[in-house]
Prior knowledge:
This protein is about 25% helix and about 25% strand. The protein is of the alpha+beta class. It has one domain (about 5-75). A four-stranded antiparallel beta sheet has the order 2-1-4-3. The longest helix is centred in the first third of the chain and has 13 residues, at about 15-30. Bound molecules: zinc ion. The site of zinc ion has 7 residues, from loops.
Amino acid sequence: xxxxxxxQKFFAALxxxxxxxxxxxxxxxxxxxxxxxxxxxxxxxxxxxxKAVGEPRWFMRCPQCGRRSWHKVSxxxxxxxxxxx
Length: 85
Ligand SMILES: [Zn+2]
């Protein structure tokens, strides 16, 4: 793992290795999307989302369009990426 957020390091120190792997795998399946089409996984953003349900919205700044807006969080693999211009 190249870099982990402090929250991720906290869990990594606390949990058995394979549990942490499952948590990372799950966090990578949760995708945070901006209305501009920018999509990143929860894990990339330094977050953890494990065995979660529902599709919350996170208010944050988008690095692509630079706007602060509500991002949709959904369990939606990046295998079908959003359209890019
Ligand atoms: Zn954006």
